[in-house]
């Protein structure tokens, strides 16, 4: 298999998995779906998280959440300690993101409203 197109931009010493404790995004889309990249991840004990080719929901909801978290909370302030950051993220999720923020994937309801609606519909059906 000719994989020159996948690796031609990296210098010979480049090894994206040389630091297994770090989460790294691929530099090119071809790397992400390539057989060699998948094999290297498996050899390093990294489980890939991606949908099938053409899957529109390939981590879209999770990426949207982290984009919102960064825009709404993390860009606005810095934290002195990890505990302070952890508390701020928890507070953001529990007091704004879940009960108030509207989500297009949920029909422009908050997660709490959506869950309440689903539970009511389930009880009516029972």
Question: How would you characterize this protein structure?
Answer:
The protein is an all-alpha fold and about 130 residues long. The chain folds into two domains: about 5-45, no CATH class; about 60-125, no CATH class. The chain is about 50% helix and about 0% strand. The protein has six helices and no strands. The protein has helices at about 5, 30-35, 35-45, 60-70, 80-95, 110-125. The radius of gyration is 20 Å and the shape is flat. The termini are far apart.
The main β sheet shows up as: none
Summarize the amount of helix as a percent range: 40-55%
Arithmetic mean of pLDDT: 76
Distance between the termini: 56 Å
Q: Total number of helical segments?
A: 6
Structural class: mainly alpha
Gyration radius, in Å: 20 Å
Shape: flat
Number of domains: 2
Number of strands: 0
Portion in strands = under 5%
From N to C, what is the helix and strand string? HHHHHH
What secondary-structure arrangement, pairings included, does this model have?
Layout lengths: L3 H4 L21 H5 L1 H9 L16 H13 L9 H16 L13 H15 L1
List keywords for this structure.
single chain; 126 residues; mainly alpha; 2 domains; 49% helix; flat; disordered N terminus
The gist of it:
This protein is mostly helical. It has six helices and no strands.
């Amino acid at each position: 298999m000719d994989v020159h197109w996948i690796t031609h931009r990296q210098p010979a010493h480049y090894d994206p998995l040389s630091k297994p404790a770090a989460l790294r995004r691929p530099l090119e889309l071809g790397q992400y779906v390539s057989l060699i990249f998948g094999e290297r991840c498996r050899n390093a004990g990294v489980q890939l998280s991606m949908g099938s080719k053409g899957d529109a929901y390939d981590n879209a909801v999770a990426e949207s959440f982290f984009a919102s978290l960064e825009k709404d909370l993390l860009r606005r302030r810095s934290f002195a300690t990890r505990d302070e950051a952890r508390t701020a993220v928890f507070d953001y999720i529990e007091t704004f993101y879940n009960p108030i923020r509207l989500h297009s994937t949920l029909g422009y309801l908050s997660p709490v409203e959506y869950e309440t609606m689903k539970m009511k519909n389930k009880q009516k059906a029972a």
